[in-house]
Specification:
Blueprint: E1 7-11, H1 18-35, E2 40-44, H2 50-56, E3 62-66, H3 83-88, E4 93-96, H4 99-103, H5 109-121, E5 125-130, H6 134-138, H7 142-159, E6 164-169, H8 183-199, E7 203-209, H9 217-220, E8 226-231, H10 238-248
Parallel strand pairs: 1-2, 1-8, 2-3, 3-4, 4-5, 5-6, 6-7, 7-8
Helix pairs in contact: 1-10, 5-7, 7-8
The structure holds 2-phosphoglycolic acid.
Length: 250
């Protein structure tokens, strides 16, 4: 049987300064290239480092993605970065709806869906982040929350006749907490996403993200529905990233 080619997304958040992001890439270029022989590697640096990271990765099988984009097109929006610029800088992907954009920047559903529309209109492939929050998790409202978020995404995708998309399940309570969902819950929730996206005739590639480490990746890879992983903190330590990715292929 052919080995699965996982998609690995390194979300560097704001863990690195511009110079630190560049040294990471420069120091690990060859090793990253090695990792990319088996996986699709997408690195998401902060906005200010996108262009230089893209430049360093020219001729490498490493793809660059943005962590967010503005909900607006060009206009009077101080401090924002529009999808058009991301495309012009060579970003192929953009995270849409990451939980930290809700939590710290008060993004609401309309804002997130507007970002999604703009990414699509500027030919950037969205990485659709979704997941229940702590309260929904505790009150057993996970299914309801996921159904709503996926339905909203699918409705927008359909508007643009998109037939294929990346969905990253990131329970908000699992991000940065050291906790991951029980495997049977993960499987159940991913199956729900498959079911909804199927109803919209969207071919969903499913990722998981939230507190992934070399300690839990072997268990997580046992879930056949998963096509890849979204790594936060662990991706900022190259040796750890390498360990996580290597364990996927053992
Ligand atoms: P974490 O972050 O791996 O640090 O939990 C994942 C994410 O937020 O994408």
């Amino acid at each position: 049987m052919q080995q699965k080619k996982y998609t690995i997304i390194a979300n560097w958040k704001m863990y690195f300064s511009h110079k630190q992001a560049l040294s990471y890439l420069e120091n690990n270029k060859t090793a990253l290239q090695q990792l990319a022989t088996k996986s699709n590697i997408i690195i998401c640096p902060s906005f200010e480092s996108l262009a230089t990271c893209k430049h360093v990765c020219t001729n490498l099988p490493i793809v660059i993605g943005a962590q967010d984009c503005s909900a607006h097109d060009l206009g009077p929006f101080t401090g924002q970065v529009c999808a058009q610029s991301l495309k012009e800088l060579g970003c192929n992907y953009c995270l849409i709806g990451h939980s930290e954009t809700y939590e710290h920047w008060n993004n609401d559903k309309e804002t997130i869906l507007s970002k999604l529309s703009l990414a699509i209109r500027h030919a950037i492939e969205p990485i659709l982040c979704f997941g229940e929050n702590q309260e929904e998790h505790e009150k057993q409202k996970t299914e309801q929350s996921i159904t709503q978020q996926i339905t909203d995404f699918c409705t927008t995708l359909k508007k643009y006749a998109i037939q294929k998309a990346l969905f990253a399940y990131e329970p908000k309570w699992a991000i940065g907490s050291g906790r991951v969902p029980a495997l049977h819950d993960l499987e159940k929730n991913l199956s729900l996403v498959k079911k909804i996206t199927h109803e919209y005739a969207i071919d969903a590639r499913l990722l998981y993200g939230g507190s992934i480490s070399s300690q839990n990746i072997v268990a997580l890879k046992s879930i056949a529905l998963l096509d890849g992983f979204l790594l936060g903190k662990v991706s900022t330590d190259f040796q750890e990233l390498k360990k996580v990715v290597s364990l996927l292929y053992e």
